[in-house]
């Protein structure tokens, strides 16, 4: 049974042609920007509402959005050009929610951009979309075109002095371009090499100008909050993690999908009530709460509430809220090999620890999975992970590779050691040898 | 200047530069690869990590190349945490690094070796097979790239982007598949390629002219000045046992060339090792024949005493000290000293090369020497009775044509580092060249560059100052001070 | 080579969106790959470099960073199969085997007759509809061998 609740994020997506401006407006869209412009709500007040709402970034870090917006410099003191870069690079394994928003409800994103532009006194917005998301890209571009025709994007929006330009930008693969400074480098037409911080984007962002980078879902929340108020937003979720979120649940479940649920809901409820439980009548063995970088957790932690503090409390992270389920036939070493291969593939290569470490972790997991593991491999996995993170590199990709490694050793050491002892995968789950280089 | 404390010592730090510059500038070495004071810091190698404490916050480990200094900052470059992170970085860098030390030119001046030893990371821990990349990638006439040795510090890429502003190298691919490449198989171009082999911390980029030529710890290195143009870049002349100049590299000089030098100067090693040297020749019935040096000098002195119209023609390689003596001689002989002024060449660029092949033009002009082209000299010398052609390369700069055209009646005396033959030449005396003598040149901007001998001149080859003392009939200058062992 | 006029016109419009022209590089490379044969040859990179007043080596450094840019000729149809965790858990490896068998292309290679290139991809954001592949820029999700046969059978 799907529990009743106040859903809003996906409320329009169910409708036919929800991606068009007519349907969007019919369902109450563009009321928030209208309200702000007609009632003359000051930019600082918009940021204030966001702060009060407690909205946290939905791209993985969970940073308070209002606070992030307030980092933009005072425009009177710093008159440089100012930007919002919307992070639509969605590449965290397991995560497929921003795609739904862009494809089915792009005007919500557009309106969110307009509100952000007003609040932070921006000169332009760039939406950086991962290159593979062709249809979502086209839908958002179409929405911008429709909005422009309706006088909602461009000069003198709704007949006021407020102008806002929104540009689409296409990426070309590379997970690291989802890192905010890697995104900016890529947008500037360079290799996606993250920048050391400080300086932070609000001081030195796109082309060295003040920039805020926000996830799609984060921006998508803004019109709802502005229209209905901070108190309304706080009516779901938890104190520290208010609101609903889009949970993509995938892997060994009956009904994988993207579901709108309140923060703080039990992971088990999502699994059983929304996704139909573990598939094929099997039992849960392991699960990932928030995208591959958050690491595996054992089945006995499945009743963890899905909010930032609770997931942190069990030694993992909320991340993108993308849940991945592994049943009893799944091999955690194989899963670790798949993920280690991913981080090896995606490291930009700047930092010594990450460039060499991601490759090293991958090689070790691969050997173990294919029967060539040795006892010291387990200790090396831990040692190398601790040498890669936290905070030792320019960005957190090294952490993203290290955390799942530490997690699998912590929770599933026995299974790894069984591989080593038995010279192969006890579950006979090994992939074909050398399927990929 | 900002006051910070480094390893317990209070020092002054330039607030416009990163912390690592403050450490290095105050004699505290911080291991680093990707950082170079002449390039934009990137903070990617991660080895320059030091422990800092500022503003009452707990100590933290930071990369010194990307950390600004702050008033009162307390820095510890030797803390356990700093050493630990260095060891970790080294372990990662050694994972795929080939065990090439026994055959690698960089051994002995390789900071991967040095830091590995000093941090105690004795052996690589990885059991994984190393990756294979191109090991002898030809980057053109001058440079070879070993992609396996490369630690991806990207200094070479940034050098071409920022210093010569001619991007030629890139990191291609990403992650553990990253490697340094040119576009397609294009060779490197330009007159500054050699610098990337200096700044490469390991033996990934090597000079074809130096590959397998010498072990760097067998080289004797002397600080000197380049003479290939009037920039006078500060250099290090590096000589092997039997005195062969094996390598020339730039030395840092804030005012003149900073960290760089051009390839014209770098590859002047051949000119520093001329094939043929002579001690003294005198014209006899069958041409120029070996003679006693005393006799040769005596002939010149006699000629200077007997005739009226004399010419003193110096090479622009003559030092200020030699020039002063030559000017004195010219005054005594009633002649205006001159020097061979070669025309500007097309090597002039925006960076260092001035296009003027006369290293001491400015110094000689200040001493009263007049610059004359070989054509002008040909005319002028035809009017005189004696001509003293003095200085390294003076014959080559005049040119064989000019020399041959000199009238046989002219009593021409050649004092040069390499011999030449022409009908007008009565005497040829061999002298030490710029690698074998000491003095100063004044560069295009008025900076004095010290020339220092990197080896002793061969037996029978004399120091110019000593010869000038003889010509002036004064006491012979003590030769040992010049590094020349051959006393008269 | 010279870029076709139509692409130049597109690029002129494209770079106007940014304060610095170079930001148009990656979208421009996409268009070149789409219009000029499905891969970025050295000649194309040189022409693009000229348009952006960059050196070819800089364009190459950028192009070689991004998995979507192909620096070698591709087959007529390019099939990219996700091998990451959510797809792997739902049988991506079986999909890989099936596709390779049907197309005659080796993994990360091109079939001998040049019809198909099969490559392995990282997470494509279709996790809730795994397993999937991207065929010539279009996602096909919730794949089964039967579905694959139907899709491939419908191709020219």
Describe the protein's architecture and organization.
The complex is a heterotrimer of chains A (437), B (488) and C (156). In chain A, 41% of the residues lie in helices and 11% in strands. Chain A has 16 helices and 9 strands. In chain A, the strands form 2 sheets. A 5-stranded mixed β-sheet of chain A has the order 6-5-9-7-8, sandwiched between helices. Chain A has a 4-stranded parallel β-sheet with strand order 3-2-1-4, sandwiched between helices. The N and C termini of chain B lie far apart (55 Å). In chain B, strand 8 (170-172) and strand 9 (179-181) form a beta hairpin. The longest helix of chain B has 16 residues, at 80-95. In chain B, helix 2 crosses helix 3 and helix 9 runs parallel beside helix 14. Chain C has 156 residues and is of the alpha+beta class. In chain C, a hairpin with a 2-residue loop joins strand 4 and strand 5. The mean pLDDT of chain C is 97. Chains in contact: A-B, A-C, B-C. At the A-C interface, strand 3, strand 5, strand 9 and helix 13 of A face helix 2, helix 5 and helix 6 of C.
Biggest β-sheet strands, sense, barrel of chain C: 5 strands, mixed
What is the CATH class of the largest domain in chain A?
A: Alpha Beta
In the predicted model, the low-confidence regions of chain A spanning at least 5 consecutive residues are: 432-437
Look at the structure and name the CATH superfamily of the largest domain in chain A.
NADH-ubiquinone oxidoreductase 51kDa subunit
Work out the strand percent of chain A.
5-15%
Write down the CATH topology of the largest domain in chain A.
Rossmann fold
Give the H and E element order of chain C. Answer: HHHHEHHEEEEH
Task: Count the domains of chain A.
Answer: 3
Helix content of chain C: 40-55%
Shape of chain C: elongated
Which whole number gives the mean pLDDT of chain C? 97
N-to-C series of helices and strands of chain A:
HHHHEHHEHEHEHHEEHEEHEHHHH
Rounded radius of gyration of chain C (Å): 18 Å
């Amino acid at each position: 049974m799907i529990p009743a609740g106040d859903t809003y994020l996906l409320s329009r997506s169910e409708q036919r042609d929800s991606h068009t401006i007519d349907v969007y407006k019919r369902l109450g869209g563009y009321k928030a920007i209208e309200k702000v412009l007609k009632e003359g709500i000051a930019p600082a007040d918009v940021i204030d509402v966001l702060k009060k709402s407690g909205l946290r970034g939905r791209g993985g870090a969970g940073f308070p959005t209002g606070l992030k917006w307030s980092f933009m410099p005072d425009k009177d003191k710093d008159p440089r050009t100012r930007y919002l870069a919307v992070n639509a690079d969605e590449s965290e394994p397991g995560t497929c929610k921003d795609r739904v928003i862009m494809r089915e409800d792009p005007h919500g994103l557009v309106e969110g951009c307009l509100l952000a532009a007003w609040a932070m006194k921006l000169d332009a917005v760039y939406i950086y979309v991962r290159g593979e998301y062709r249809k979502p890209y086209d839908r958002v571009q179409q929405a911008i075109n429709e909005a422009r025709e309706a006088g909602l994007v461009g000069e003198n929006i709704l007949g006021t002095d407020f102008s806002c330009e929104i540009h689409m930008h296409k990426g070309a693969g590379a997970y690291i371009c989802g890192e905010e400074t890697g995104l900016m480098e890529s947008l500037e037409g360079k290799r996606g090499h993250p920048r050391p911080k400080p300086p932070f984007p609000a001081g030195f962002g796109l082309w060295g100008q003040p920039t805020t980078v926000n996830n799609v879902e984060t921006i998508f929340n803004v019109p709802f909050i502005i229209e209905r108020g901070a108190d309304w937003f706080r009516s779901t979720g938890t104190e520290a993690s208010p609101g609903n979120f889009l949970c993509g649940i995938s892997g060994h479940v009956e009904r994988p999908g993207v579901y709108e649920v309140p923060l703080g809901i039990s992971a088990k409820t999502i699994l059983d009530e929304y996704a139909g439980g573990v598939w094929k009548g099997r039992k849960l063995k392991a699960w990932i709460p928030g995208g591959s970088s958050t690491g595996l957790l054992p089945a006995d932690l499945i009743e963890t509430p899905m909010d930032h503090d609770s997931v942190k409390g069990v030694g993992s992270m909320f991340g993108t809220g993308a849940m991945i389920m592994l049943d009893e036939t799944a091999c955690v070493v194989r899963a670790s090999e798949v993920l280690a291969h991913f981080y090896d593939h995606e490291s930009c290569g700047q930092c010594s620890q990450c460039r060499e470490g991601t490759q090293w972790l991958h090689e070790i997991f691969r050997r173990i999975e294919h029967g060539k593991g040795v006892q010291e491999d387990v200790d090396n996995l831990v040692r190398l992970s601790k040498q890669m993170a936290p905070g030792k590199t320019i960005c957190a990709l090294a952490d993203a590779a290290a955390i799942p490694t530490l997690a699998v050793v912590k929770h599933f050491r026995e299974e790894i050691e069984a591989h080593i002892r038995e010279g192969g995968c006890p579950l006979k789950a090994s992939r074909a040898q050398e399927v990929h280089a | 200047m900002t006051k910070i404390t480094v390893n317990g010592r209070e020092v002054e730090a330039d607030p416009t530069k990163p912390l690592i510059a403050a450490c290095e500038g105050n004699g505290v070495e911080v291991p680093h690869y990707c950082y170079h004071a002449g390039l934009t810091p990137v903070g990617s190698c991660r080895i320059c990590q030091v422990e800092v404490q500022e503003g009452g916050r707990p100590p933290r480990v930071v990369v010194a190349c990307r950390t600004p200094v702050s008033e009162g900052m307390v820095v510890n470059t030797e803390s356990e945490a700093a050493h630990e992170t260095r060891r970790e970085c080294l372990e990662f860098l050694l994972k795929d690094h080939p065990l090439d030390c026994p055959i690698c030119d960089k051994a002995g001046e390789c900071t991967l070796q040095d830091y590995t030893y000093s941090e105690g990371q004795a052996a690589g821990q990885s059991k994984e097979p190393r990756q294979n990349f191109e090991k002898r990638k030809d980057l053109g006439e001058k440079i070879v790239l070993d992609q396996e040795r490369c630690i991806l510090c990207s200094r070479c890429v940034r050098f071409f982007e920022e210093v010569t502003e001619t991007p030629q190298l890139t990191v291609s691919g990403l992650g553990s598949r990253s490697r340094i490449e040119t576009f397609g198989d294009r060779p490197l171009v330009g007159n500054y390629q050699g610098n990337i082999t200096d700044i490469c911390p390991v033996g990934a980029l090597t000079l074809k002219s130096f590959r397998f030529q010498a072990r760097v710890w067998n080289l004797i290195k002397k600080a000197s000045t380049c003479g290939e143009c009037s920039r006078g870049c500060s250099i290090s002349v590096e000589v092997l046992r039997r005195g062969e100049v094996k390598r020339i590299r730039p030395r840092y000089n804030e005012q003149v060339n900073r960290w760089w030098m051009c390839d014209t100067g770098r590859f002047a090693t051949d000119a520093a090792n001329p094939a043929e040297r002579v001690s003294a020749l005198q014209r006899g019935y069958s041409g120029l024949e070996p003679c006693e040096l005393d006799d040769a000098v005596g002939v010149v002195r006699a000629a200077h005493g007997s005739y009226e119209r004399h010419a003193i023609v110096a090479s622009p390689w003559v030092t200020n000290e030699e020039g002063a003596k030559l000017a004195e001689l010219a005054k005594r002989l009633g002649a205006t000293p001159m020097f061979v002024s070669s025309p500007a060449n097309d090597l002039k660029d925006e960076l260092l090369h001035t296009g003027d092949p006369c290293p001491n033009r400015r110094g000689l002009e200040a001493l009263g020497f007049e610059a004359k082209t070989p054509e002008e000299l040909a005319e002028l010398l035809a009017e005189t009775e004696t001509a003293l052609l003095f200085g390294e390369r003076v014959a080559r700069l005049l040119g064989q044509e000019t020399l041959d055209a000199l009238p046989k009646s002219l009593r021409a005396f050649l004092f040069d580092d390499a011999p030449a033959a022409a009908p007008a030449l009565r005497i040829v005396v061999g002298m030490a060249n710029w690698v074998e003598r000491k003095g100063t040149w004044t560069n295009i901007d008025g900076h004095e560059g010290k020339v220092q001998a990197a080896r002793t001149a061969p037996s029978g080859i004399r120091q110019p100052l000593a010869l000038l003392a003889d010509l002036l009939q004064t006491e012979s200058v003590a030769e040992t001070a010049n590094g020349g062992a051959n006393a008269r | 080579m010279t870029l076709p006029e139509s692409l130049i016109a597109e690029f002129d419009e494209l770079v106007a969106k940014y304060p610095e022209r170079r930001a148009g590089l990656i979208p421009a490379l996409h268009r070149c790959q789409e219009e000029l044969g499905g891969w970025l040859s050295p000649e194309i990179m040189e022409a693009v470099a000229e348009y952006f007043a960059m050196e070819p080596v800089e364009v190459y450094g950028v192009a070689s960073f991004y998995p979507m840019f192909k620096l070698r000729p591709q087959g007529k149809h390019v099939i990219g199969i996700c091998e990451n965790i959510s797809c792997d858990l739902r049988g991506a490896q079986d999909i890989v085997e099936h596709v390779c068998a049907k197309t005659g292309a080796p993994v990360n290679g091109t079939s001998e007759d040049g019809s198909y290139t099969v490559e392995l991809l990282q997470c494509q954001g279709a996790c809730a509809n795994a397993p999937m592949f991207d065929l010539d820029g279009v996602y096909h999700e919730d794949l089964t061998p039967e579905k694959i046969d139907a899709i491939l059978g419908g191709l020219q």
